[in-house]
Amino acid sequence: MHDPLVVVFDIRYPWWRRDPGGWRYHKPLVTVWHREPGEADSNTVCTGMDGSRLSWHNLAWAARHLRHLHFQVHPAQQVRHYFVRCADCGQRMGRCQRIGTWDGDEVYHFWCHDLRHTRAVLADFQEYVRGDADPNARWRVEHWLDQHPLVPDDISGLDGDDK
């Protein structure tokens, strides 16, 4: 299954900005998304959208599909992200790097996510050594060991004899 969401069009800030490549629009102010009914693949149930640019055709199409539209207001999203709390340590995110999950609304500080990952890897290794690991954990440990050998392939020069 593919993503049921597709961008209908972006509403950009009404002013321009200068960068090394010349004058350009700012990032979008609002992004208008269309979600297919029944979580179907995009453009399979509601067809006829003409790309993802702001045009009269797309505006008319969006008006007919108003109940399927979702509006992503970027400035409000940035303000809301400032007050979101880390799912691991419970502190506010502020302006630090954040990592979200695909299957939920949980957000983590970069360092909290790194610590969670390290704990999960160590738990896999512990289960593997005990012999309690399920097939997935066994595969993860064996794959990691294949990618990070404990004994180097070339051991010449390690014994102190440089002949």
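That was protein one. Protein two is written in the same sequence-then-structure order:
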Amino acid sequence: MKTPANVILIGFMGSGKTRVAGLLSRKLGFQFLDMDRLIEEKERMPVADIFRVKGEDFFRSLERDLVRELTSKERQVIATGGGAWLDGENRSRLLAGGWCAWLKAGPEQVWDRVKARLSERPILAAAPDPILKIRELMESRRIAYEMAPVHIETDDRTPEEVAEELMSRLSKDHPFDLSELQK
């Protein structure tokens, strides 16, 4: 049985999911969806404020509902939030709902990518040593992220290079018929 025609990008904050998903969606002619942005639009506040005002449990509930909704459709490139994959129910639905790829980045690369917008990353902003916090979080998530069938390194690569590698892997893996979809 073929995988539903969705590409789902998972990974840690700053791994490039949103930028790469936007590029890949244009290459495939698929709809681009960023889960965090969709939740922000629904709640009319940034994710950091949702966490602060309504709590993580509330946010994770919204995330589970959104995963259910998005995985019922096709022809999408979905950039998940960094923690969405950690929830077992989400992970099962995402694996069943599309071709999942883990965008991997090292702690220093993540820090370089997120430090300019630290206000959007309350966990890191509150940490005395943000790089140490990134390492700890990455290690605690590593086993879950490794469950993704595809792993793509993003360190020292442009989003365009990562998107091209994903296109190459899609052509090689054939999770769904690209020739039919790109007409």
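Strands lie at 6-10, 31-34, 76-79, 99-104, 150-153. Keep this in mind for the problem set.
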